[in-house]
Amino acid sequence: MNLVGNLETSTISLRNNSSTGAGGAGLIIAEGTATYAITGNTIADSGGPGLCLIDLESPGSARAENNTITDAVGIGVEVLRNSAEVELLANTITGTSVAEVGPIDRDAAMAYGVALFDSKATTIRNNRIQENESAGILADMTDWGIYFRRPDLSGDSNVVVRENTYGSNGGGRNLVLQNI
Question: pTM of the full predicted structure?
Answer without folding.
Answer: 0.95
